[in-house]
Amino acid sequence: MTHLNMDKVVRCGLNQSRRAVRMLTVTFAVFLASAAGFAHAQVQLDNTIKKVETFVNAEGDVERRLVDANSVVPGDELQYTVRFTNNGSQSVDAGSIVITDVVPAHTEYLDGTAFGAGTQIWYSVDGEMYAPPNKLTVVNDGVEMLASAKDYRSIRWTFAPALDPGDSGYVSFNVRLK
Amino acid sequence: MIARTQFNFMRQQIGIFMLACGGLFGASSSHAIGTDAGVNISNTATATFSVNGATQTPVNSNTVQTIVDELLDVVVVDANSGPVAVGAGATGAILQFTVTNNGNGNEVYRIIAEDDVNEGGFDPLLNQLYIESNGLPGLQIGGDTPYVPGSGDPLLAEDSILTVYVQSDLPPGLVQGDNGDIQIRAIAQTILDATGGLDNPDDPLWPVPGTSYATLGDGGGTAVVGTSADINALLLRTQGRYQVSEAVLSIDKTAVSIVDPFGGNTIVPGSVITYELALRVVGSGVAQSVQVSDVLPAELAYQPDTLIVAGVAEDDDFAPAGVDNSGFDEASNTLLIETGDVAGGAADIVISFDAAIR
Q1: How many structural domains comprise chain A?
Q2: How far is the alpha carbon of B208 from chain A, nearest alpha carbon, in Å?
């Protein structure tokens, strides 16, 4: 609806007097404001993938570095980083941002790699029930046992602070390509 | 000492047969070890949040996608379980190797044999390579496929295993204990294509692991050289060894007849298979205190009183102890046959027995 209104005003602005052009400017500004206020994507997520490469440095020590994941083969370690940004004009409630990411098919989560400053990190073995690692179980051959990192199918980060307009943070986790 | 070595060799032959026998009964010879080349690895994150206590519409991230490249990894293994004993002046002596495509794509491999790699030993005279193709254990000339590297190089599906036989003659003038080696290596067609035909890892231009070749991978993606090409731990190359022995034992095991419960010859539970083991000693010496043991797989039940050694029925027990050392040990599902000393060149000693499929 908003779009149709603007379209109408633009045509009007092209054909009418300077007053009408001023009207257009005002209307357009109102449109922008309403678009921002109306926006669903007050929190924006930007997902990136990198490959973790090990190399031997000049001192002969093995180091790790992130490189573009242009070429991946089984056995490679990959790192997903999701940056979350408040693009809106209002603060996002403390404790309300919950980011969920699925461990991709053909990969397995690498224990201890999930990271997120100011977040509580829970995991799931079925994509439905989330719990901390010491409370997450699987059933193998009828025996319930503590789930291992390889069992995790998805990860959930709950960001504790409020997120003010313009602020951002990130979460990340590593997997190995099977 | 000689007898012991040959006894071990004999056990190896039986072991090789049993491996093949296991295949017959459905044992898997390969398993998937890596995500296929060309698979798209995709990831999208989602977030829920609220503003002023009002839950907002959840948001998705952009979706990141990465296509799995082809990993070029091949492992060549000496399948002879140690040096293969051969008589001095032997002809047509066989070495056996396996070539396994440990990569994640289909790849053609060129299999190259070298017969002049043995430092301080003799050079076998390489006759012919064969590729296992008829499904029967061991080389059957006329059954398995003769192979010339560069012509009809085999396509190996990912995780598949190929058996390669090397047939050689031995040069004259050898004595007991002389060693002669054959080296086998498998070179990916992609590396041959990318390097203009480079087929020797000793070449200074040989690609290091991690080298990638755009568009040359299975399915048109990138191909990446795997760790099996690492010159410091070269898994794509190995050696097998002939060792000259004055008396060489061999055993050929064959299933000479199959009778199923319906009077036919299908392999089903209840079918009775008659096996024949032909024990042969070649060379100028005597194989001493020869004992044959044949461990039957769990799927096979020995049929009582069917053991025949060199045409003479042999009872199943081991009584009197220390005198009768041939029979069937039920606890280990194993046949034990003692033939004593066997001179090189003597007629084959044929052992037969029946076993039923459980």
Answers
A1: 2
A2: 14
